[in-house]
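Hello forum,

I keep getting stuck at the same step: I have a sequence, I want structure tokens, and every attempt I make locally crashes halfway through. Rather than fight my setup again tonight, could one of you with a working pipeline run this one for me? It's a single chain of 241 residues.
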Amino acid sequence: MSTNQSRTPHPRIGTRQPEPTRTGTRPPALLLDSGGVLILLDGEVLAHHGKRLGLRLDAVTAQHAVALAARDQDLEDEPASGPRPFTHHWAEHAGCSPDAAEALWRTVRHEVDDTVLWSVVNPEAVPFLDALPSRVQRYVVSNADGHAHAELARAGLLDRLDGVLDSCAVGIAKPDPRIFRMAAVALGRPMEQCRYVGDTLDGAPHLLPATVLYDPLGIYPDNSAGYVRIRKLSELLDTLD
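Reply #2:
Ran it on my machine without issues. Output:
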């Protein structure tokens, strides 16, 4: 998503009523990515524009190729010439040439708003948020284009959150640790009491608590030293006591 800056200096709070402070050990607060975790990419959009360019591309393949390309970028050893473009990784998994992939993504980025490309509500999102104990704070931290609040409201998720940080609105983008600290401050929590839940590693907070990697396709290796990997959001529920 876009990381353009705007003049809005402060995060906005969601509509979920805060839980009164209790004594004893508090469960960790969750700092959730939006795109790829709560809201998914619409593969139909890529397939539609691909067809216009003569590509035989189905929606599922297009969507999965995005996740696989992001995985490749996360895990590749950077060569001396620099990292390979995302579009080249995507082309390998979508079954097309790098030139065709670059033409497709150039068209999509020019003609399609992020709120249209990322518009499918993860079917796991509402059941997961509703199943979280009310005292578990949940805050979205998203590299977005200034429309994260509206996007989450349309998805029926905003009132299930304690707040949203849109990188465009605050002028700081992941993985800059300051955006995570802003969310922690808004929740009244130290960073060591927060967990970041994302679908890739490139936005994970450096030198901050371990990332929970949401990997529904099972495409990342197990790596208990670097991150905790889950296949379903519901797997988090048993870790929050």
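The CA atoms of residues 52 and 155 lie 28 Å apart. If your local run keeps crashing, start a new thread with the error log.
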